[in-house]
Design goal:
The strands form five sheets. This protein has a seven-stranded mixed β-sheet with strand order 14-15-16-13-12-17-18, sandwiched between helices. The protein has helices spanning 41-58, 63-92, 96-116, 155-167, 180-192, 207-216, 229-241, 264-275, 293-309, 328-343, 375-378, 394-401, 417-426, and strands spanning 7-9, 12-14, 21-25, 32-37, 123-125, 132-140, 143-147, 170-174, 200-203, 220-226, 245-249, 254-258, 286-292, 347-350, 365-368, 385-391, 409-413, 431-434, 453-454, 467-475. Helices cover 39% and strands 21% of the residues. The protein has two domains: 7-250 and 452-475, Aldehyde Dehydrogenase, Chain A, domain 1, CATH 3.40.605; 254-441, Aldehyde Dehydrogenase, Chain A, domain 2. The radius of gyration is 23 Å and the shape is globular. The N and C termini lie far apart (64 Å). Helix 2 (63-92) packs antiparallel against helix 4 (155-167), helix 2 packs antiparallel against helix 5 and helix 8 packs across helix 9 (293-309).
Length: 476
């Protein structure tokens, strides 16, 4: 059953208790499934005070203690994944298989951070004077605030929390109001794993009020945000005015380059499955497809066929391969992309329409003959729409792929080592995946360049945004 929603502050779960509440809707039916309490300013002050107090002791906790908590959380995820995954599907819409995959992937993130936090090393620098000792220390930055999105409500929030806690920081988490049960589950996991009160706090409600109030607080030293580029720019500007550290993972609009010499059928199959995962509501979803002339016809036929065959339905239906969009406004947005492309002479090969019945369902859509300045090729659709165009030379493909301000993920398919080398060096993106889909693993860095943000989550870089560097020079 969908849980009773609450805040989590200083080790206590706080329900409505007179607070303003908002309805939580199922995207498969648009019916009310829960009520989310909004944090008041007093709640935010309590969370800030708790996080500040907890940091005074958590910052000096041993790496072993932090690792034990994270490993305990990993074990609890294994036990609770079915329930967490079902609630995730109820509130977000993705298929149950995808929801379970999102939740269970976080076992690795918990275990990776548990091991990696034991390897936060300083160093000794050989001195110029034998009587001097020069030491570099890596210390937790302080109280952090983390803002996570609705498309991967459990895993995106979880990666921020384990990085902050593993580094010795305390954190105030604000998840999306559309998907609150998923972030509440994180609070419950850490609570039951024995995390000291105040190290993790969860607030919900008015995003604008909460983000501005928390970021302006002198208690907060670090901001981590995953979401749209416009909102990220606003938060980064606010934090930057007070010289606060930021990690920003923003919009994508990922290009795909498919060369003549690629394994065309395999590329089409992999990309179709990945494109329509979570109904295309993925920041690293492939969206702009550049296919070389010699491969174009075969790729388009295969890719469109895979899209047309997808069964769309309620995420809790085992037969569904794609669920609804998370909100009704996303369906309207998809219609806008299709209408713009059609008016500009593009052709819809499959889909292109809202599906009948309850819920926010839109057909998997493939469009061709798109001008480079169409909305679909310049704005991230964040939905189940793929645009496919031709290219002739590698230089042309790279120029078109790099023409937008985004630079999160990119993909390429080729059997030529020379092409692969040129693509890996030439694509302006924080992540490049060639001949497979190999992103977002616990041991690999995740982040973008240009307007797609800065900073990395995961990999050995995972703690960089949560640690300060202190140089100590001591005359003995």
């Amino acid at each position: 059953m969908y849980p009773q929603l609450s805040l989590y502050i200083d080790g206590q779960f706080l329900n409505g208790a007179g607070r303003r509440e908002q309805e939580v809707l199922s995207p498969a039916s648009n019916k009310v499934i829960g009520h989310l309490p909004h944090a008041t300013q007093a709640d935010l002050d309590l969370a800030l005070s708790a996080a500040e107090r907890a940091f005074s002791t958590w910052r000096t906790s041993s790496a072993l203690q932090r690792a034990q908590v994270l490993n305990k959380v990993a074990g609890l995820i294994r036990e609770r994944a079915p329930a967490i995954g079902r609630n995730l599907t109820l509130e977000q819409g993705k298929t149950l298989a995808e929801a379970m995959g999102e939740v269970t992937s976080c076992v690795e993130h918990a275990e990776w951070h548990a091991e990696e936090c034991r390897r936060i090393y300083g160093r000794l620098i050989p001195p110029r004077d034998a009587c001097v000792q020069q030491t570099v220390l890596r210390e937790p930055i302080g109280v952090c605030v983390a803002f996570s999105p609705w498309n991967f409500p459990f895993s995106q929030a979880f990666r921020k929390v384990v990085a902050a806690i593993g580094a010795g920081c305390t954190v105030i988490l604000k998840g999306s109001s559309d998907t609150p049960a998923s972030v509440l589950a994180i609070a419950e996991l850490f609570h039951d794993a024995g995390l000291p009160p105040g190290v993790l706090n969860l607030v919900s409600g008015d995003s604008g009020m909460i983000s501005e109030y928390l970021i302006r607080s002198p208690i907060v030293r670090k901001v981590s945000f995953t979401g749209s580029t416009p909102v990220g720019q606003q938060l980064a500007a606010l934090a930057g005015a007070m010289m606060k550290r930021c990690t920003m993972e923003l919009g994508g609009h990922a290009p795909v380059i498919v060369c003549d010499d690629a394994d065309i059928d395999r590329a089409a199959d992999l990309l179709a499955a990945f494109k329509f995962r979570n109904a295309g509501q993925v920041c690293i979803s492939p969206t702009r497809f550049y296919v070389q002339d010699g491969a174009y016809d075969r790729f388009v036929e295969r890719f469109a066929g895979r899209a047309e065959a997808l069964k769309v339905g309620d995420g809790l239906d085992a037969a569904s391969r794609m669920g609804p969009l998370a909100q009704g406004r996303r369906v309207t947005a998809m219609e806008g992309f299709v209408d713009d492309a059609r008016h500009r002479g593009s052709k819809v090969l499959t889909g292109g329409r809202r599906l009948p019945g309850e819920g926010n369902f839109f057909a998997p859509t493939v469009m061709i003959d798109l001008p480079d300045d169409s909305r679909l090729m310049t704005e991230e659709p964040f939905g189940p729409i793929a645009g496919i165009v031709r290219f002739k030379t590698m230089e042309e493909a790279l120029a078109r792929a790099n023409s937008l301000p985004f630079g999160l993920a990119s993909y390429a398919f080729t059997s030529s080592l020379q092409n692969a080398h040129q693509l890996s060096r030439g694509l302006e993106a924080g992540m490049v995946s060639i001949n497979h889909i190999g992103l977002a693993l616990a041991e690999t860095p995740f982040g973008g360049v240009k307007a797609s943000g800065y900073g990395s989550e995961g990999g050995s870089e995972t703690f960089d945004g949560y640690l300060t560097t202190k140089f100590v020079s001591q005359l003995n």
